[in-house]
Amino acid sequence: MALARLGGARRPENYTWPGFVDALATLLMVIIFVLLVFVLIQVNLAYRVAGQDATMNDMRAQIVSLGDLLNLERKANDELKDELAGISSLLDATTKERDSLVTQLANATATLSLRDSEIRQLTAIQAQTEESLEAARQTIAERVAALEAIELTLAEAQAKLMESEVEIADAAARNVSSLARISELETKNAASQAEVAQMTNAVTALRLRIEELTSLLAEKEAQAARDKIAIASLGKSLNNALASRVQELQRFRSEFFGRLREVLRGRDDVRIVGDRFVFQSEVLFAQGAASLGPEGEEKLGQLAVALNQIAAEIPDDIDWILQVEGHTDDIPVRAGRFADNWDLSTERALSVVRFLAESGLPANRLAAAGYGEFQPLDDAGSDEARRRNRRIEMKLTQRIAGN
After folding, report:
1. pTM of whole model > 0.90?
2. What CATH number belongs to 47-243?
3. Where are the domains of the chain?
4. Continuous H helices in 264-340
5. Which fold has domain 264-398?
6. Averaged in consecutive runs of 10 residues, what is the pLDDT profile of the chain (403 residues)?
7. How does strand 270-273 pair with strand 366-370?
8. Which site from 111, 182, 279, 299 is most exposed, i.e. has the minimal number of CB atoms within 10 Å?
């Protein structure tokens, strides 16, 4: 201002610049004050709006929580229905198995030749029935536990619904503008309570159904006990019949050993080990070969004559079989047409079986197996031990039932 006045001494008297600057400065201060007041008002309004938004967000979160709870309850109800359908299917399967068991028991007494296979079938079915009954017991126990868990969940849901009602009431007191929304929530809450009541009724009906299934299970267990007694009686008679056949086969096996001892008397290349005749491989085969040599065919020919005589005397109803087993030493096969000792031992056993079949023994009474070096007689690892391990074993035995 002083500078303006000093300058004014040298300017014309009508120069108006200082007054204009003063007016402009005053206007600028007024504008700044107005802006400051506007900013304060905006901050106050933003604070109030933020408070309203927080309240609305809380209410929205509560509504989402209630919706999730209702969805969970509906899902649990669907799973409960699926489990009930599974129990019904299991009951139908158990009834069918029981009917099949009764039919098989009626047919089991038809003929003695069929009793062996029928008793195994009945035993297997009875074991399956017991497993099914045990599974049914476990399923019922699991369903009871599931019902208790559902009841606990229902109680928690009801408690949460009550809490939601309190929270809704508090929200109505805090924000009058949300009354319409709260009214909608109360309507949904009433619907949720109706659904909870329906689920409670369904649980009660399911509990009654489980009690019926438990009663039916007890009846099935009693029937299974009666079937078990019948199976035990039938099995006893069948075991007696099988024991007589085993004794008869044992007699022919003794005769088989006796005659073969007569045929092989004085020979040191054949040994008796337990219930088996053991031929050293060198007697029948050349080293690394699986074809019988002339000397081997001659010795097996003598054996085949005795075997044919014994086979003609064994009754047809004794299901016997001559098991021929090939064994090698532990030296790997390095060259030739054989992949390994398993292959070599199997081919040697097959050569003996083919020769005996060509010599008149029934092919259905012969069996061949190769064990390679994995069942040695002597583990010493010496040349003598390896010679003993290279062998062909023969055993008269009974065919495994069902094969």
Report:
1. no
2. 1.20.1050
3. 47-243, 264-398
4. 281-284, 294-313
5. 60s Ribosomal Protein L30; Chain: A; (3.30.1330)
6. 47 64 88 90 85 76 77 77 75 73 62 67 70 71 72 72 69 62 69 73 76 76 72 64 57 61 59 78 88 89 86 79 94 85 95 95 94 92 91 83 49
7. unpaired
8. 111
